[in-house]
Amino acid sequence: MSRLALVFGLASLAACLPTALLAQNGMGRIVQGVATLDRNFDIADANRDGKLSKAEAQAGPVAFIASHFDAIDAGHTGFVSKADVHAYIVRMLMRSQPAPASSAGKAR
Question: What's the domain count of the chain?
Fold first, then answer.
């Protein structure tokens, strides 16, 4: 299973688990942070189109999105969606993970 699929699977599972359980394994902070970011995204989305322009991000309570807007907007559309923000967070989390050990050369 690819690491990206694993992260998405864990994120989906995390969304279904109570926060108290998540706090025990360190995922609680990430899940709570994303939930807060999603709520603030909705507040910043002044025209309620489900996307943020750079101006909306800079004017709203989403400093993280405003400061990383160009990196989040990987398609260079001038707008970011919640899915874009979530994908950026996954990329950042994956970047901080060590590469899996290779099974090549291991004795059996």
Answer: 1
Residue 42 lies in a domain: yes
Asked whether residue 20 is domain-assigned, the answer is no
3-state helix, strand, coil in the chain (%, to 5): 60, 5, 30
Tens-digit pLDDT profile for residues 85-108: 999 999 988 887 676 666 555 555
Which token pair is 26? 């360190």
Q: Poorest-confidence range of 8-12, 16-20, 44-48, 52-56? A: 16-20
Which residues are CB-contacts of 46 (< 8 A; sequence separation ≥ 6)?
A: 56, 59, 60
Domain hosting 66: range is 30-95
Q: Is residue 5 domain-resident? A: no
Residue 85 burial (10 A CB sphere; 0-12, 13-18, 19+):
buried
pTM over 0.70: no
Q: Is residue 74 part of a domain?
A: yes
